[in-house]
């Protein structure tokens, strides 16, 4: 494909489109002139290249399967020819809208692309469901809005485009209603906003004085310490609206929304964590959740336990395969334990698990040998002998006391 047409001479290089794309470091706020207060704008969610160390972990995960878009995808080969035609059409039409170029500078739109049957099929089956969530395949949201205007003239793109993702792509992860999608800087940024944990006052309780979140225990270890796991239902109006709404009740009951482990969810979470790592002002709630679930279910036994509770759903060949994928979920991702939204939940569970009574319980009844019925029979027999010995001792003492009283009378 030829190089994209240059911006017109009267266009400021620091235009709205260019400000959405960052090749290097985020721009610094302008200094205030004199002593006049200048409002600081909200930091933008900038687009960077995928770091090489992340790329090398799984190169196929970061490669688009059909549509290659975004500022860092230009000039890549190997995709379907129809993708190149679609890209050419988007370049011509969207750049015309954004830069106000003259009509004579725009090549005619290929008729095979503007066919009403080909565009929805391309949008629904390829563009929306697979490649649009790749971090390295992101476009500024203003470009996505212009594309939607071309596909559906006269329709508000903010609500419609956002509703597509909220009701279709993210339906298994969140029930949160979309309020203002225009605030998102990219499609992945919109997904990040929808997957923010629901405000919960109980998260403020506990964790007093805790500087950072420590290592989460395995699910089976929590079970041995009398911690119960329950599935938490999510809804659009309830206190749990997305999969990140993990809650600890009564210090030993953990309520976790169901998580469907599949290639789509794995890719979504990896790209959201990468977005957080590259834009620190977004926070790290997705990274904190992935850190929690990957440590909680790091073995096949842990996955089996959570699967029986309905908390984890997967289509892998075995629970061990699913656990291996969860273990690799946070590879090369920077995690900040001092800004973990689950800090208070970890503190509550840790205080429960370190209680001496529960530690003794775990030592006595946490062994796998207790699953053998012969062990239980032997234990009951030993208890019966112990009771008989106690009764025999009591009767012996009573008999001795009765004899002593009889001698005293005589």
From TrEMBL:
Disordered as annotated region, ranges: 1-36
Keywords of the record: Membrane, Transmembrane, Transmembrane helix
Pfam family for this entry, one: DUF247
Domain of life assignment: Eukaryota
Chain ranges passing through the membrane: 374-397
This protein's name: Uncharacterized protein
Organism, as annotated: Oryza nivara (Indian wild rice)
């Amino acid at each position: 494909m030829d190089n994209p047409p240059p911006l017109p001479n009267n266009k400021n290089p620091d235009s709205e489109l260019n400000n959405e794309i960052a090749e290097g470091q985020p721009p610094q706020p302008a200094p205030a002139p004199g002593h006049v207060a200048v409002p600081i704008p909200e930091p933008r969610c900038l687009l960077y290249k995928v770091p090489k160390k992340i790329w090398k972990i799984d190169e196929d995960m970061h490669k688009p399967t059909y549509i290659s878009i975004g500022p860092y995808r230009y000039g890549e080969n190997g995709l379907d020819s129809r993708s190149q035609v679609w890209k050419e059409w988007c370049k011509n039409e969207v750049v015309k809208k954004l830069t106000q170029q003259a009509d004579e500078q725009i090549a005619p739109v290929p008729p095979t692309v503007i066919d009403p049957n080909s565009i929805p099929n391309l949008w629904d089956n390829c563009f929306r469901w697979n490649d649009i969530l790749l971090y390295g395949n992101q476009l500024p949201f203003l470009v996505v809005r212009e594309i939607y205007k071309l596909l559906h003239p006269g329709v508000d793109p903010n609500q419609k485009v956002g509703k597509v993702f909220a009701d279709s792509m993210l339906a298994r992860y969140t029930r949160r209603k979309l309020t203002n999608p225009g605030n998102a800087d990219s499609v992945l940024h919109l997904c990040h906003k929808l997957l923010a944990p629901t405000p919960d006052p109980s998260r403020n309780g506990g964790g007093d004085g805790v500087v950072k979140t420590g290592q989460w225990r395995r699910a089976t270890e929590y079970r041995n310490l009398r911690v119960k796991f329950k599935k938490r239902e999510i809804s659009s109006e309830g206190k749990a609206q997305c999969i990140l709404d993990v809650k600890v009740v009564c210090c030993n009951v953990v309520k976790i929304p169901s998580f469907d482990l599949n290639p789509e969810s794995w890719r979504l979470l990896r790209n959201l964590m990468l977005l957080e790592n590259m834009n620190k002002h977004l926070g790290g709630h997705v990274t904190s959740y992935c850190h929690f679930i990957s440590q909680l279910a790091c073995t096949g036994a842990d996955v089996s336990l959570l699967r029986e509770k309905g908390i984890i759903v997967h289509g892998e060949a075995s629970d061990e395969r699913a656990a291996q994928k969860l273990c690799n979920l946070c590879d090369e991702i920077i995690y900040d334990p001092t800004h973990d939204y689950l800090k208070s939940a970890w503190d509550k569970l840790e205080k429960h698990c370190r209680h001496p009574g529960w530690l003794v319980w775990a030592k006595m009844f946490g062994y796998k040998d207790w699953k053998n019925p012969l062990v239980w029979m032997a234990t009951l027999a030993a208890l019966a002998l112990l009771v008989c010995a106690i009764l025999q001792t009591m009767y012996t003492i009573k008999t001795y006391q009765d004899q002593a009283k009889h001698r005293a009378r005589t």
